[in-house]
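2024-03-11 09:14:02 DEBUG pipeline.ingest accepted 1 chain
2024-03-11 09:14:02 DEBUG pipeline.ingest length=368
2024-03-11 09:14:03 DEBUG pipeline.predict start
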Amino acid sequence: MKLTGVLKRFHIVTAAVSFLILIPLALMIFNSSRTNEERHEKVGLVILGDTKISGWNSAHYNGMKAACEKFGVELFLQEKVRENSGECPVAIKTLANQGVNMIFLASYDYSREIKDLVREYPNIAFATNSAEVHDRNLTSYFARLYQARYLAGALAGMRTKSNIIGYVAAMHNTEVNRGINAFTLGVQRTNPNAKVLVMWTGSWQDERLEAKHAMRLIKAGADLLTYHQDEDATAQVADKYGVDFIAYNEILSGYSEHYLTSVVCIWDLYYSDMIQRYLKGELNSTKNHWLGIERGAVMLSDYSPLVTQEMRDKLEMLKQELINDRLIFSGKIYDNAGNVRCEDGEAISDDTLLEDINWLVKGVEVLE
């Protein structure tokens, strides 16, 4: 009887101890579950134009939307936010009040407007398209679109008969200059006798001026056009007059075979990478985020029938060079004023490519 009593007391004590252990464990699991439910991730996207119009704005929005759906993140959009107008800080404050955790600024000059404002929101992770401003919670992100520009230039060099290629460009900044320079180096790779005529619009979106410049470039002898603008006004003019063109931002539809290809970024892949970095707490751990051709983030779209098999083979060879780490901005490079910008055996660094390209390569002429 004594042994039985001891065993009963032992079982009672054991049960009590187990109960005391299980209660806090259950509370921890419950609270953890509640925390995960309450931590609802929200992403904000600030963009310059109308996301329903084909081009830069719709490409970013559709890519971000797909990435958010992939990770179960809610997307909050601020569109038609003009640069250098005071609208970007207002958009950020609106998103902050909506409880966003990270904000992507998808136009070049936004970072200058909000370089001080980001410090008022230390718990929000910011990422911007330009690399001229950084902070603890503000990093830069962009695709190596210049790699696809280089391939597009190589194609232009092979296609041109007049050896004059027209380029309608938004503005004289690092992003646009980098693309023009890579394109021109690509032209020179396949056709050292060709030159690139550039006309500036001073704006990311100005259809009337873009069309006017495209016409002037055609009259100046350009038999192939490309552009760095948010929308496709240059493509419309080129197609109307039977001139070859290479598009930018999106894969277009409804054009003739003079539409040779597009320089595009796979933004859903890019934004998926960025959101994943944020969820891991790594978004602002790197000064500049780049994704390129080796990750499938940038590419040329399907070719027109006017692009011969010989041309396609050459482009594939150049693409494989880039995948195998050939640097476009390496070796002896002169600017169009005759200054040496890169020496033999050297390469221009990523930081310089992102932050400080205020020159145009030899072979570029600016048409005033």
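2024-03-11 09:14:41 DEBUG pipeline.report Confidence is low (pLDDT under 50) at residues 15-39.
2024-03-11 09:14:41 DEBUG pipeline.predict end
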